[in-house]
Amino acid sequence: MDDVVACFEYYADLAEALDGKQRSPISLPMENFKSYVLKEPIGVAGLITAWNYPLLMATWKVAPSLAAGCTAVLKPSELASLTCLELGAICIEVGLPPGVLNIITGLGPEAGAPLSSHPHVDKVAFTGSTETGKRIMTAAAQMVKPVSLELGGKSPLIVFDDVDIDKAVEWAIFGIFLNAGQVCSATSRLLLHEKIAKQFLDRLVAWAKNIKISDPLEKGCRLGSVISEGQYEKIKKFISTARSEGATILYGGARPQHLRRGFFIEPTIITDVSTSMQIWREEVFGPVLCVKEFRTESEAVELANDTHYGLGGAVISNDQERCERISKALHSGIVWINCSQPTLVQAPWGGNKRSGFGRELGEWGLENYLTVKQVTKYCSDEQWGWYQPPSKL
Ligand SMILES: NC(=O)C1=CN([C@@H]2O[C@H](COP(=O)(O)OP(=O)(O)OC[C@H]3O[C@@H](n4cnc5c(N)ncnc54)[C@H](O)[C@@H]3O)[C@@H](O)[C@H]2O)C=CC1
Ligand SMILES: N=C(N)NCCCC(=O)O
Question: Which residues form the active site (predicted)?
Answer without folding.
Answer: 150
